[in-house]
């Protein structure tokens, strides 16, 4: 219960902060140690490889039968199927 609140708090702090990578990496560490899942709506806004919070400024989104989210910092592309 405490871990979920802490994860949500860290991810909300990561929105417009210069320490966003640090906040996201701390949230990921807490979720792995306590076996709590990161909320699904927040999970797609985090780059798996460089741990940045994906916003309008540092990502691009394409929709072609699937959703492709590209991180502009590391170049990683995440593909999510549309059901």
Can you give me a brief rundown of this structure?
With 83 residues, the protein is an alpha+beta fold. It has helices spanning 2-13, 20-34, 40-43; strands spanning 59-63, 66-71, 77-81.
Query: How many individual domains?
Result: 1
SSE ordering: HHHEEE
Output the radius of gyration. Answer: 13 Å
Q: Based on the coordinates given, report the CATH architecture.
A: Single Sheet
* CATH topology grouping: N-terminal domain of TfIIb
Describe the 3D structure:
The structure is a single chain. By secondary structure, the chain is of the alpha+beta class. It has a single domain (2-81), classed as N-terminal domain of TfIIb (Single Sheet). The protein has three helices and three strands. The protein has helices at residues 2-13, 20-34, 40-43, and strands at 59-63, 66-71, 77-81. The chain has a three-stranded antiparallel beta sheet, with no helix packed on it. Strand 2 and strand 3 (77-81) form a beta hairpin.
Observed structural traits:
about 80 residues, alpha+beta, N-terminal domain of TfIIb, 3 strands
Ordered list of secondary-structure elements with their pairings:
Layout: H1 2-13, H2 20-34, H3 40-43, E1 59-63, E2 66-71, E3 77-81
Antiparallel strand pairs: 1-2, 2-3
């Amino acid at each position: 219960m405490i871990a979920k609140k802490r994860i949500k708090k860290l991810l909300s702090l990561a929105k417009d902060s210069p320490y966003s990578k640090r906040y996201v990496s701390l949230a990921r560490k807490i979720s792995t140690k306590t076996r709590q899942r990161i909320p699904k709506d927040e999970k797609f806004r985090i780059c798996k490889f460089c741990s940045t919070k994906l916003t309008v400024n540092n990502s691009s989104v394409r929709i072609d039968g699937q959703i492709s989210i590209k991180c502009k910092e590391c170049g990683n592309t995440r593909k999510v199927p549309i059901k």
